[in-house]
């Protein structure tokens, strides 16, 4: 739609050259490099003009009363399912909030990390025996979804639960995921849970906002390779515009390591101090103490799929940590290398016996100094 005083900027991220050279019968012996300047894109737009009278009427109303638009806000989390594991328990993935809908998919970690010969959307069953959701200590829905690990004899039960949670049954209409795509040996096996009491997500009414602790339990056959569990959640929200220039909304952007590095590099001031976006076990062995340095650290090591980013700023004898979750660093299961690095930077032990010393919850927005022993 043609709206005055609006501009749009599009960014395209290139796949590695190996992705499109994979099908070549005689690939070149020298390394193929991709230059963005050599790629031309054709972008088609459909320009629709709004009736000026309608536009002016809307602008006039916005000066007198707030405008509210219902919206669906989504969040995603990912968790490792290790090679050889037969179960996975995910505790409180959404920090005390209960989504209206939860959808869970499992895929190979190599596919999740972008290996060019793997399908990043191939969500498999991977020998799941049962999966259940615990809300405030009580299972909900009240019947565990049980499947056969070695065959598809119970897959119809799982697919029926998927249709129910995604609203297909009360709408009396299906969706893009058919039964032939769901279950044993298939690549669109998504496990869904509806946390709406009447199950009607699409009704034109706002649903109550629930708070509580969610635990997700997965029992499966022993995994032959590393997998990644992706948990997707939906929440109802409202965007409120309280004037022509005022808007209140919330936006979440899921960024990869390369995108974070590119974003930091695009800022001429931050570029001077920014080291890199790193896994928690990839930080430099000898921390810089003289010059200001900025890091973005993932709470997972390099051999894990990645979970959450923490911002770190060091300058002379001070260090600042920003964790948007506001959690104690000791709550992150794989963050020990980062804690060891902090101990090395500060000269004195900040963490001992798995507990923070003298800092309370070392998370959120924490600041502390360094001194020589």
Oligomer: single chain
- Summed over residues and divided by their number, the pLDDT gives a mean of 80
Roughly how much helix do the residues carry, as a percent range? 10-25%
Question: Distance between termini?
Answer: 64 Å
Overall number of strands: 18
SS class: alpha+beta
Unreliable stretches (pLDDT < 50, length at least 5) are 352-364
Sheet having the most strands: 5 strands, antiparallel
- Anisotropy-based shape: globular
Rg to the nearest angstrom? 24 Å
Kindly estimate the percentage of residues that lie in beta strands according to DSSP.
25-35%
What order do the SSEs take from the amino end to the carboxyl end, as H and E? HHEEEEHEEEHHEEEEHEEEEHEEE
Number of helices: 7
Question: How are the elements arranged and paired?
Answer:
Blueprint: H1 17-21, H2 52-62, E1 67-81, E2 87-91, E3 97-98, E4 101-108, H3 109-112, E5 128-135, E6 138-139, E7 145-146, H4 155-165, H5 168-171, E8 190-194, E9 210-211, E10 214-220, E11 227-241, H6 257-265, E12 274-279, E13 293-298, E14 309-315, E15 318-322, H7 336-346, E16 351-352, E17 355-356, E18 365-369
Parallel strand pairs: 12-13
Antiparallel strand pairs: 1-11, 2-10, 3-9, 4-8, 4-11, 5-6, 5-7, 5-10, 13-14, 14-15, 15-18, 16-17
Identify the notable features of this structure and list them briefly:
five-stranded antiparallel beta sheet; globular; 373 residues; single chain; 15% helix; alpha+beta; five-stranded mixed beta sheet
